[in-house]
Amino acid sequence: GAVVSQHPSWVICKSGTSVKIECRSLDFQATTMFWYRQFPKQSLMLMATSNEGSKATYEQGVEKDKFLINHASLTLSTLTVTSAHPEDSSFYICSARDAGQPQHFGDGTRLSIL
Amino acid sequence: QQQVKQSPQSLIVQKGGIPIINCAYENTAFDYFPWYQQFPGKGPALLIAIRPDVSEKKEGRFTISFNKSAKQFSLHIMDSQPGDSATYFCAASRGGTSYGKLTFGQGTILTVHP
Questions:
Q1: CA pair distance B26, A90, nearest whole angstrom
Q2: A52–chain B nearest CA distance, Å
Q3: Is residue A13 helix, strand or coil?
Q4: B76-111 pLDDT per residue, tens
């Protein structure tokens, strides 16, 4: 149980394009979802927290206009990287949890901007 | 105050050895301390977690030792196997059963030689 699916697992795109990453909870209701960013050989850095039906709360230093988060249903959240540039290349990981339960993580999306 | 400091950065043991990874925190409001295992290209997976009302917790070959007065906790892996080779992250959060946002340690790359 408690499976979180992330799609796509790997995406390569040109600089200036926008990329959407999906995060789905497959067998539970995700009242809260989290988005993280991880650079090679580094730890996970929380980017934002989203509750279903509410605007996301962004961590300090994360540009909310660049990283658009939508959590429109109890099983789906999306992260859109707008006008992506090479410095946005990273491993993006989502996690989800139901009320009173710990977070469960997806398998991440490797984003490469050329 | 929100930091969790993890050591060592990397660790090499022989099969059957007992690697120990340590974490220290400052924020006394933290009340949930999980450990995650991450394989390359994958998201972190919850291994074991502890709350500050107990000093030790065992699940299979994994043991957490917790020292509330020292604000430290550690992960011990008994009878380590080559398949345990991965990156391990400690984390901390507050909020009781609300499982607030996680603050991660820097990670430890564990290599278990056959």
A1: 29
A2: 15
A3: strand
A4: 999 999 999 999 999 999 877 667 889 999 999 999
